[in-house]
Amino acid sequence: MSHVLIDNVRIVRPGERIAAGSLLIDGSRIARLDPSPEECPPDAARLDGGGRLLTPGLIDVHTHGIHRYQYESGPEHLLAAAKVLGAYGTTCVVPTIVPMPGPRLLPQLEQLAKTIPSVADAHIPGLHLEGPFVALTGAACRPIAGDVRLLDEMIAACGGRVTIMSLSPETPGVLPVIERLCERSIVPFITHTRATPEQTQAAIDAGARHATHFYDVYPVPPETEPGARPVGAVEAILADRRVSVDFIADGCHVHPVAIRAAAAAKGYAGIVLVTDSNIGAGLPPGEYDTPWGFRVRVRPGDGARNVRTNELAGSALTMNEGIANLLKWLGKGDAGSPARSGQEDLWQERAGCCFSADQVWAMGTSNAARLIGLNSRGRIEPGADADLVLWDDNLRPALTWVGGRCVYAAA
Asked: Which pLDDT does position 304 carry in this prediction?
C-alpha cells in the first residue's frame, strides 16, 4: 500500500476544532493523526502543506450537474462530471435526477445506476430522486400522487442504488411512500411544498426528517385572517428539532438573514450545504443548453436562470463557493474563515448565532455524511476514508484526494 504523510497543515476536524498537525494516509484510509517519526513508514511520500487548511472532502447531496454535464443526460455525463468535481473540493455527490413518469423512466434509472461503480474520481453512494411525488413543479418536476408500487419499480430499476428521494408532505398517498423509503434505508427529503403544519408534521412523524433547498419552493401561505401571520411548512420544519435543513448558499436563492434564522433554530449540526447546481456551474458567464428543453443563463451573483422566463432553474453554485459564503455569513472569523466586510461584521454582531469555523465546515462535510449514513466520510480521524482537500488561502483547492488517490492538483 502507498503511504503519504501530509505535514505542516491546519487540520479541520468538523464540529470539533482546527489545529496544526500532520496526517498519514495508508492506501485509501487515514492511518494516523500527528504520527511520530517511528510511526511513519520509511517509504512514505512527504507533502509539506505550507500551513494551509486540510479538510474532509465536501459532500453535495443535491446537485443536478456541473460545467456542461447534466447527470440525468446519461452515463457519459455522470463520468465526465465526476472528473471535474475535485477542482471545487467536492469528493462525494448524490446525483439528483428529476424522474419523468413514462416509458423511458425505468431504463434511464437503470442505465445511470449501473454506471455508478465505474466512477473513480468521486464517491457516489447512490442517486437522489427529486420527485415524482411532489406537489409543486419548481423548475422541472411533474407532480403525481404517491404510489408505492411505482416507488418499488424505481428502486428495483436502480438496483437498490437510491440514497435519497425528495417529496412533498401534501402529495396524496405520500405517507406510505415515506414509510417504505425508511424501510429501505432511503432518506426522505421534504421539498416543493405548500403543506399545512399538520401535513408537514404527519410527514415528519412518518420519517421525513430533512428539508432540501429550504425556503425555495416553500411558498408563504395566503393570509386568511387579516393581521394574523399565516403558518405553513417552513414554520413546522423550523419548530421541530428532529428535522435538519439544507440551503443553496449562493446569496440569490436564500437571503443570509433567512439562513441565520434557521441556524438559530437548528444549531450548526442541523444545517447542510448543497448546491442544487445545474449545467453552467463552475463555468464563465453565458448561456447553456439543458436536457429539459430550455437554456439557462449563468452570471456572477445569480443562480442558473431559464433564458426564456428568467425563472431560477437550479444554481450555478459550486461547493467551495458555498462554504466560503457560509463562513462569511455564519462564522466567527476565526481560523478557516475568509475576511468579512464591516457590514457583515455588524450583521454577525446582531445575529448572535455565530459558529466556529470548524462548525461551519461541518455543514459541508460531516453533517451531510451523517444525514445519508456515510460513517467513514466527512471526518478526519484514523480509519476514515482519505477523502481530503488541501486549500489555498482563497478557498480554492490546491490538492484533492478521493480514497487516498489525488484526483485534482492545481497548476
From this structure: 86
Give the Cα-Cα-Cα angle 328, 334, 336 (nearest 5 degrees).
70
Confidence tier at 237 by pLDDT (50, 70, 90): very high
pLDDT tens digits, residue range 92-108?
999 999 998 899 999 99
Architecture of domain 3-54+385-409 in CATH?
A: Roll (2.30)
Give the pLDDT mean for 69-82.
Answer: 95
> What are the residue ranges spanned by the domains of the chain?
3-54+385-409, 57-371
Residues forming a β-bridge with 12 = 18
List 218's β-bridge partners, or say none: none
Q: How far apart are CA 65 and CA 37, in angstroms?
A: 43
Q: Which fold has domain 57-371?
A: TIM Barrel (3.20.20)
Place of cell 484526483: 407
Q: Give the helix ranges, DSSP H, for 69-173.
A: 75-84, 105-115, 148-157
Question: 283, 272, 248, 320: which is closest to 70 by C-alpha?
Answer: 283
- Return the sign of the alpha-carbon dihedral for residues 277, 280, 286, 287: negative
Q: Which of 407, 386, 406 shows the shortest CA–CA distance to 56? A: 386
70: three-class secondary structure by DSSP: strand
Torsion angles phi and psi, residue 254, rounded to 5: -140, 130
Mean pLDDT for the stretch of residues 6-28? 97
Annotate 128-156 with b (16+ C-beta within 10 A) or e (fewer): bbbbbbbbbebbbbebbebbeebbeebbe
Model's pTM, two decimal places?
0.94
Assess whether the previous peptide bond of 172 is cis (omega < 30° from 0): no
